[in-house]
Amino acid sequence: MPIFDDDGNEIDPSEIPVPRMCLMCEKKDDPYEKILCDLNRFGQRDERHFACGAFVSLYGPLIDDIII
Hints:
Elements: E1 3-4, E2 10-11, H1 20-23, H2 34-43
């Protein structure tokens, strides 16, 4: 299913940069999240810092006691 930007141009998901944060997310291979993730990355492609409210770490929650 194709996705489009606000101007009606088709977006090629393979050309959207993938931030390192996305590589550590549980949802990176979830087909139900793919379109939302692609649109979020596309919307922030020119930003210096990437932010994602749906991020879920592969490593679980970090505990302050184990962080050195």
